[in-house]
């Protein structure tokens, strides 16, 4: 085994790799960009080397600078993580040429899987099942049309050099083929510099099932079963699980053996994933091979009990695989949810900002090995526009899918994250969704279930309002409704304005709930407290305990119901974490500004992050309504729709399709 490992990545995967490397006694070297000088992965490693500016192309994508860092640090090996240089053939080769071990497959295997059509030919020769179609050299439109007619419609035209859903066209019938072909070739030439396409039968309700494979440099290759990653949104995985629901032992073996054949066909070494697309009846076809460790590898680790990063390091050091196929088995069920700083109610736009509060397991219940968190950021860190806005991966295990799903829903309900918007509540709804619960999985699940996954926001409950009120009282020195628990010597009534001193004490709290004003009133008549909001009047008792700056553990009895919550008061915001559903309320001074004003975004609209304009839906003079799509930006490999914040008329659009825009750039003017 080597003694020094350079980790050519950042965030959770860099932390993940560092943890295993350190357990094995290796010295770990981080590299970092200017944006990451104080990042968690830098702190996690034994030493760190700066490699350039915040943009990936100036740092984490600079192969030569990273190799120099490895040499300077005396590292014998480089782990590329995922993304960045992990599937970069030139970097893998440059490492090999420099005598430094690239923890991944040989450059030749990366190259062999890089082209879709070449990979399909290799797989065909290796006996791996392919979607019926044509992936040859002949690109004559008449010939391709004839192939499509033979396959039968609908067909899918795919750019050979494409990936991640780019450069694909569904063609429903023969008369639409020519135009779709021309358009797909135009996009492929523009996006990939290569207009070669292939034609496949289009599968209508596909599942994404992938097989984890592992090969060593001694000719051994095994599969570690499957992961189901069907729950995706715009080709971004949202939930991954293992094993795949409904998988039979026979099909598991057939897919595993096909995946091993695929790996062997390219002389694979290390961790790899063979992706299949599966039909509802279980038939499966090779899609592509990812020549790296994947984001979702923890679900495989949870059910097999093997540390895949340890295997990677051992294999890279020339050791044989620790087990043979027959030694491998799995137990239970694991689910991973990707927790992102993004806003599900606005096209999943990344939410940039500081993570003021981040409470992840093990503070949640059952943190006993059945819950795992792979995180890349700490409380107080910033989510920047430069990198993928993933906060953490939450992975849970249960004895079966039902238990894992219930635990995931519970754990998601207990996460506390203040400062940026997150997809946590969305993920929890997904866990509780009927189609997901019944494992009715396919790549269209999120769209199909849109109405139940994006419910109209409900008004805050009286319980949540009372909990918020109790925390606000605590922040003003009124810790409990029990008189004897008041701080000795302090006169709480002085701390509170708005009390009437005539036997009846009364205080009104003006709150904003989803932008709407809501008044809740606390009253005391004799020794009896009450909460009222609208028509509701209920007896109230409360008890609080400060657990951090602006953070309270609150217990209330409202009517005859007991409830407890963590409440975080941050500026005007009051975050109530109770009963699995977080509620955000805001303190609102009705004299300071009207509700209308506070929801008015003014006349301009700015870019929420740096990126490229890829389409514009409006022009000067167009009337738009709040929520209308105005333009689409691409940033961090994802598309983001910019919506109108209000009804109005477009005055001017300042950019054109293809323009690069900076963070905060004014995009258009609305009257
Ligand atoms: C397909 C398909 C249906 N039929 N191929 C999308 C990304 C690319 N790697 C392969 N993809 C697909 N190929 C045929 N013949 C549907 C998809 C597809 C998809 C595949 C896996 C996971 C999510 C997906 C979402 C939309 C479309």
Offer a quick outline of the entry.
By secondary structure, the protein is an alpha+beta fold. Helix content is 26%, strand content 34%.
What key phrases describe this protein's structure?
single chain, 671 residues, alpha+beta, Dna Ligase, domain 1, D-amino Acid Aminotransferase, Chain A, domain 1, 6 domains, eight-stranded antiparallel sheet, 34% strand, binds ligand MV4
**Small-molecule binders:** ligand MV4
Largest sheet: 8 strands, antiparallel
From the alpha carbons, calculate the radius of gyration and give it in angstroms.
Answer: 28 Å
Strand order of the largest sheet: 14-13-10-11-12-15-22-20
Count of the domains: 6
Shape: globular
How would you describe the overall organization of this protein?
There is one protein chain. The protein is 26% helix and 34% strand. The chain is α+β, with helices and mostly antiparallel strands. It has 6 domains: 4-103, Rossmann fold (3-Layer(aba) Sandwich); 132-201, ATP-grasp fold, A domain (Dna Ligase, domain 1, 2-Layer Sandwich), CATH 3.30.1490.20; 204-331, ATP-grasp fold, B domain (D-amino Acid Aminotransferase, Chain A, domain 1, 2-Layer Sandwich), CATH 3.30.470; 338-456, D-amino Acid Aminotransferase, Chain A, domain 1 (2-Layer Sandwich); 462-482 and 498-587, Glycoprotein, Type 4 Pilin, CATH 3.30.700; 603-670, OB fold (Dihydrolipoamide Acetyltransferase, E2P) (Beta Barrel). It has an 8-stranded antiparallel β-sheet with strand order 14-13-10-11-12-15-22-20, sandwiched between helices. Strands 24-25-26-27-28-29-30-31 form an 8-stranded antiparallel β-barrel. β13 and β14 (284-290) form a beta hairpin. Mean pLDDT is 91; it is low at 484-500 and 593-602.
């Amino acid at each position: 085994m080597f003694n020094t490992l350079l980790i050519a990545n950042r965030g959770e995967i860099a932390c993940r790799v560092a943890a295993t490397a350190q357990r094995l006694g290796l010295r770990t070297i981080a590299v970092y960009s200017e944006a990451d000088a104080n990042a968690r992965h830098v702190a996690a490693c034994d030493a760190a080397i700066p490699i350039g500016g915040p943009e990936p192309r100036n740092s984490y994508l600079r192969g030569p600078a990273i190799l120099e860092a490895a040499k300077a640090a005396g590292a014998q090996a480089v782990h590329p993580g995922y993304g960045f240089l992990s599937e970069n053939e030139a970097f893998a080769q440059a490492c090999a040429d420099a005598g430094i071990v690239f923890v991944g497959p040989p450059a030749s295997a990366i190259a062999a899987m890089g082209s879709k059509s070449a990979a399909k030919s290799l797989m065909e020769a290796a006996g791996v099942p392919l979607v019926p179609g044509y992936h040859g050299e002949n690109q004559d439109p008449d010939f391709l049309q004839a192939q499509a007619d033979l396959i039968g419609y609908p067909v899918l035209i795919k750019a050979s050099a494409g990936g991640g859903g780019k450069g694909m066209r569904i063609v429903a019938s023969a008369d639409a083929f020519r135009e779709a072909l021309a358009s797909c070739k135009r996009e492929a030439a523009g996006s990939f510099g290569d207009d070669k396409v292939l034609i496949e039968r289009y599968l209508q309700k596909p599942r994404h099932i992938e097989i984890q494979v592992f090969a060593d440099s001694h000719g051994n290759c095994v599969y570690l079963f499957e992961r189901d990653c069907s729950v995706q949104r715009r080709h971004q995985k949202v939930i991954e699980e293992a094993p795949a629901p409904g998988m039979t032992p026979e099909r598991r073996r057939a897919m595993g053996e096909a995946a091993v054949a695929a790996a062997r066909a390219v002389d694979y070494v290390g961790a790899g994933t063979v992706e299949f697309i599966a039909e509802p009846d279980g038939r499966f076809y090779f899609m592509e091979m990812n020549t790296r460790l994947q984001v979702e590898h923890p679900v495989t680790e949870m059910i097999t009990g093997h540390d895949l990063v340890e295997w990677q390091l051992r294999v890279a050091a020339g050791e044989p695989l620790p087990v043979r196929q027959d030694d491998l088995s799995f137990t239970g069920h694991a689910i991973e949810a990707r927790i992102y700083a993004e806003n599900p109610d606005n096209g999943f736009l990344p939410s940039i900002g500081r993570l003021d509060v981040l409470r992840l397991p093990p503070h949640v219940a059952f943190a006993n090995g059945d819950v795992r968190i792979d995180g890349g950021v700490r409380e107080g860190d910033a989510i920047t526009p430069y990198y993928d806005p993933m906060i953490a991966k939450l992975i849970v295990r249960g004895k079966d899918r039902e238990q894992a799903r219930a635990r995931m829903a519970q754990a998601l309900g207990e996460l506390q994250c203040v400062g940026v918007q997150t997809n946590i509540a969305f993920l929890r709804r997904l866990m509780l969704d009927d189609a997901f619960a019944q494992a009715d999985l396919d790549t269209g699940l999120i769209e199909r279930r849109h109405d139940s996954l994006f419910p109209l926001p409900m008004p805050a409950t009286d319980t949540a309002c009372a909990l918020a009120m109790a925390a606000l009282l605590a922040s003003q020195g009124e810790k409990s409704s029990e008189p004897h628990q008041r701080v000795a010597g302090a006169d709480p009534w002085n701390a509170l304005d708005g009390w009437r001193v005539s036997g009846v004490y009364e205080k009104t709290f003006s709150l904003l709930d989803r932008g709407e004003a809501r008044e809740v009133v606390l009253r005391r008549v004799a020794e009896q407290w009450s909460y009222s909001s609208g028509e509701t009047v209920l007896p109230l008792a409360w008890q609080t305990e400060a657990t951090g700056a602006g953070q309270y553990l609150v217990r209330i009895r409202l009517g005859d119901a007991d409830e407890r919550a963590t409440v975080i008061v941050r500026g005007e915001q009051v975050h109530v974490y109770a009963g699995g559903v977080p509620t955000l309320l805001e303190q609102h001074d009705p004299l300071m500004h009207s509700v209308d004003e506070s929801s008015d975004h003014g006349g301009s609209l700015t870019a929420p992050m740096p990126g490229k304009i890829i389409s514009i839906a409006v022009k000067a003079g167009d009337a738009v309504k709040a929520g209308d799509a105005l333009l689409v930006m691409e940033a961090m490999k994802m598309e983001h729709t910019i919506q109108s914040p209000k009804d109005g008329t477009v005055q001017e659009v300042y950019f054109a399709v293809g323009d690069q825009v900076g963070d905060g750039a004014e995009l258009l003017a609305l009257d």
